[in-house]
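Could you join me in thinking about how sequence relates to backbone shape in a protein? Label the sequence line and the structure token line clearly, so we can match residues to local backbone shapes. Once you have written the record down, we can walk along the chain together.
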Amino acid sequence: MAYRAEYLWIDGKEPDAEIRSKTKILADGAEPGIWGYDGSSTNQATGDNSDVVLIPKFQCPDPIRGGDDILVMCETYLTDMITPHPTNTRALAVKALEQYGDQEPWFGLEQEYTLLDPVTGWPAGFPEHGYPRPQGPYYCGVGAVKIFGRDLVERHTSLCMKAGLKISGTNAEVMPGQWEFQIGPADTVEVGDHMWVGRYLLYRLAEEYNVEVSIEAKPMKGDWNGAGMHTNFSTEKMRNDYDAIIAACESLGAEGKVAEHLAGYGSGIEDRLTGAHETQRFDQFSYGVSDRGASIRIPWQVEMDKKGYIEDRRPNANADPYVVATLMTNTVCGALA
């Protein structure tokens, strides 16, 4: 007997990395081991020195194939098998967690995405080369004239649950054809593992529906919401002390930190963070209670309870969750240490 291990890794595509995968057939009882691939085909090597090493780091059941088949999330390494590849963002998340794990950083990531017709490029629910009614009824809406793609979303949720991912919710978003799923609570490394596998399952399932999944920050120009990956974050101190909440917000607005974070929050920041459509402008920083037009939102219940978490509303849907989690951990935990 044998089983299949689907090896997953992050490529070197610029400006926004994507997930890649390939299948290894393993004898029953054998563990998935080190493997490799052609990095010259993933923007991670040149043709004259093309090998990149895959080292398994996280695995879970493959809910699409079923049986004993598994998904294997890998880190990429140079051929010395000691040096992380320059595009290995997971290794940086591991380093951040090793340094600040005693503060118990927790994340909840909200992954927005848009379902597109692969031929026209138009979002689901948009008339061909036309526009639907303005935004308003679609967010968390119900009904055939408001909601498009629910079958795919429901199946994706079930697959994530079967894989054992920390999926915590789903909802229809503000623009037609736009959805969101949430991963967390999870630590700095785990949240990236689970989000990337969740993205893989979404892309893989969309193949069966002949639908393109876009995590572009502004898939439709004009008076339509962009797509983000709102990042909810807390430490043990923040979950018990409101002063730590304010200190966390202040640390994210400190000199040099705004630019550092925006540089790691995905491409298209200027298109999405315009000051409209529930965003603060990319060139301004603010935080406030219950303010979805701020860079950082403090939920109303957090102010009421005087403890809890904050929401960084700036990361784009196309951001690398390992990078976002690393930045948040280093900045906030460094300030609260």
Q: What stands out?
A: The two ends are 52 Å apart (CA to CA).
